[in-house]
Amino acid sequence: MRLSRYYIPTLKEDPADAEVVSHKLLMRAGMIRKLTSGIYNYLPLGLRSINKVATIVREEMDRAGAMEVLMPMVQPADLWVETGRWDYYGKELLRLNDRNGRDYCLGPTHEEVITDLVRGEINSYKQLPVNLYQIQTKFRDEIRPRFGLMRGREFIMKDAYSFDKDEEGAEKSYFEMFEAYKKAFSRIGLRFKPVQADSGAIGGDFSHEFMVLADTGEDTIASCLSCEFGANLEKAKVAAPAGEDMTNADCPAIEEVDTPGQHTVEEVCKYLGVDPSKLVKTLLFVVDDEPVAALVRGDRELNDIKLRNLVGGNEIELADEELVKKLTNAPVGFAGPSGLDKDVPIYADHELCAATDWVAGANKGDTHVKHLSLGRDCTIEKFADLRVIEPTDPCPECGGKIEFTKGIEVGHVFKLGVKYSEKMEATFLDENGKPKPLIMGCYGIGVSRIMASAIEQNNDENGCCFPPSIAPFEVCLIALGGKDQAVTDKAEELYSSIKGLGVDAAYDDRKERPGVKFAEADLIGYPMQLVLGGKGLKNGIVEAKDRKTGEKIELPLDGFVEAFTAWRKEIWNNWGLEVK
Q1: For 396-426, how does the pLDDT look when each residue is reduced to its tens digit (9 = 90+)?
Q2: Interhelix angle 44-63/167-188, nearest 10 degrees
Q3: Minimal CA–CA distance to 445: which of 136, 214, 215, 173?
Q4: pTM exceeds cut of 0.85
Q5: Which CDD domains does the record cross-reference, listed alphabetically (predicted)?
Q6: Is residue 164 classed exposed, middle or buried when 0-12, 13-18 and 19+ CB atoms within 10 A define those classes?
Q7: What Rg do the C-alpha atoms of the chain give, in angstroms?
Q8: Which domains are delineated in the chain?
Q9: How many Cβ atoms sit within 10 Å of the Cβ of residue 435?
């Protein structure tokens, strides 16, 4: 492609509203433009990169036996009502009406639509397994869209859905997709890690996220340095404490103490002269409109996702100040498990079993209690893993050392089971002629987010450093001939040679200063840059630059094709990629 004819509206300065590196560079490199909050136009360079991501994903889906379909973005409310998600999905679901007043939504995902499709077509075990996928635009009305393509409202996604006759088949389909994802992300050139994850609004009982490792990632991943364990903080298990259960151990009689104006853990512990590890923190939540209490040690952080899953709820939020006062007869900061409203079930982190003689709120203003025994002084519904894992915790699987890293979610695989098929009566006849619900899995990849994630992982002070597999153009040939027709003619010859090799090349034939061409080539992040000027032509060489390392070498003009082919292979190998 000749850049003199190409639309690349680059910017010299970072946009004022751009917060993360990928957003800044995608805007500056002329790859995207904002239309409105969380919604972007994909410009030619950006779309080329996204299409290359989609091609790799599509090839791996096809290789794994999935078949491509395309479903409507506009979905009727009736299907969502069938599964109960019309109300549960909340405000992220953009709802609309047609001219006849019928309810619809813009699809944030397609479980309902695909289940409706197959229930009308699949009726026998002989038709199974089936795996259908699409690459399509989704819309989720994020409460606070930010970070450009990282968390926009409209985005391009690959979503696949598997249907099996039994659990064995469903597990096989799940891990076929798991392996296909690993191959796709490896081919793209990403450094990534699959981790255990919570299923969230999609549902199901088993899922993994694929996280691109980047210091700017929103998510924190807990990984073991000794085994394969990895999980995001929402999902990461904390091993039960070793040793004796002290829940019912001897403890002095409970005693109230005045703590005037001491609301926080830090204030109470300083006032009473105790360590935060000796205080029980009582947190009040509302899960699906019902109040629950959760207990953790004072120096720990409660994991509300674990609490929600333990209770078996859908939505969870902290109780507001008014509800706290109603349940505890005290201001916020003085809640405790002893004497709490009897209609509020109490769940406690299993770490609290390892000790007794606790400090806690007294459910009375400016008052706490000492010598609290959880077995004697209150009724615990259940002890369970309820807290956020910490770097000092041992690996829950092997006991090894835990490491925290940052990551960006680019893929998610779910084992759905019969969550949707039962509610929508998507059944088949088994070998004995009996109707059974289809067993489902679903598998998503953020296609547009991958482009942004690749930049978050690969950039420097000069701009993007695209992996060659998904760069808008793999190589950029920069001609510096000016009015020197001999340089122009040779550049044209080199451009034809590169295209003849099947390499995706850009030819910067613009009448711009060399500095502008070099700066924009680095900004856009072409993995390979070739520079031909009058001096190089005279000396029979073209300068070749590796964008990732900045290393420059000279390729001979005589025998250029062979030298370029070898250099290109080396560039791909340095990315851990196999050259096409």
Answers
A1: 999 999 999 999 999 999 999 999 999 999 9
A2: 140
A3: 136
A4: yes
A5: ProRS-INS (cd04334), ProRS_anticodon_short (cd00861), ProRS_core_prok (cd00779)
A6: buried
A7: 29
A8: 15-191+409-456 (3.30.930.10), 255-384 (3.90.960.10), 473-574 (3.40.50.800)
A9: 10
